[in-house]
Amino acid sequence: MAKNITKINLMPEEFKNRFSYSRTITKIITSAVVLGLVLVSYFALIGYKISLNNQIQKIETETKAIKTQINDLLKGQNNGLDKELALMNLIKKIFLGHIYWTNFFQSFEENTMPLVQFSNFSGNVEDKTVTMKGQTASYTTLAQQMAVFNQKQDLFPEAVFSNISQARQGSIGFDLKLVLSNNLLHNEY
Predict the structure, then answer these.
(1) Does residue 120 belong to any structural domain of this protein?
(2) What is the pLDDT of residue 124?
(3) Would you give the DSSP letter of residue 79?
(4) What are the Cα distances from residue 80, in Å, to 67, 83, 128?
(5) Is 62 within the bounds of a domain?
(6) C-alpha angle 121/146/159, rounded to 5°?
(7) E strand map for 76-145
(8) φ, ψ (nearest 5 deg) of residue 179
(9) CA separation (Å) from 11 to 7, 15, 18, 174?
(10) Is residue 1 part of a domain?
(11) Which tens digits make up the pLDDT trace of 133-167?
(12) 169 with 124: CB under 8 angstroms?
């Protein structure tokens, strides 16, 4: 005997298409992606909040430090004259230690013979010396220049001419080392 089994489906066809397997998977994946984006956004906002709180704490710390400095300054106004006097003494000390090369160059120019030229200037403040190379037209002019520096002992206590030689074109070359006086490099206040 043959069995006839009839399959009866009680679900209408239009519902059958709505609940297909592939649509269900798509909806699950879409929901998972949306949930993931929501979670990432949530944790990003928590991180941003922590960052803002750290910045607020840093600004509050800086504000407290500035307020402390202002209070210290306001308290120090009572001693303002002492601070101004100390500042003036510091400025005076700076000026006393300042080297005035313009004084040297002006005096050096005033005491240089017209036919003498100098180059390769080098100054040493610690031992108060200046070295340079010089050139002149003749031995006579060089002797006159030596005499001028020897007469100005108050400005140039020592003038040493060395490596004196005559070039092919006839000019006289030499090296000069000058020891400078204290009052030439420093101004008195």
Answers:
(1) yes
(2) 83
(3) G
(4) 19, 5, 39
(5) yes
(6) 55
(7) 116-124, 129-136
(8) -95, 130
(9) 12, 7, 11, 120
(10) no
(11) 999 988 999 999 999 999 988 888 999 999 999 88
(12) no
The boundaries of the domain holding residue 27 are 12-97
Give the span between the Cα atoms of 157 and 24, in whole angstroms: 105
Strand locations in 68-153 (E): 116-124, 129-136
Q: Give 181's pLDDT tier (boundaries 50, 70, 90).
A: confident
- Chain mean pLDDT for the chain: 81
Full-model pTM? 0.49
Identify the DSSP state of 157: S
Residue type, 45: L
Model confidence band, residue 14 (pLDDT cutoffs 50, 70, 90) = low
Asked if 108 and 153 sit in the same domain, the reply is yes
Query: In the 3-class helix/strand/coil scheme, how is 163-188 assigned residue by residue?
Result: EEEECCCCCEEEEEEEECCHHHHCCC
Q: Is 50 exceeded by the pLDDT of residue 77?
A: yes
Q: Nearest Cα to 156, choosing from 176, 178, 138, 137?
A: 178
* Phi, psi (rounded to 5 degrees) for 174: -160, 165
Distance CA 181, CA 186 (A): 9
- Number of structural domains (the chain) is 2
- 109-119 pLDDT, tens per residue? 888 888 899 88
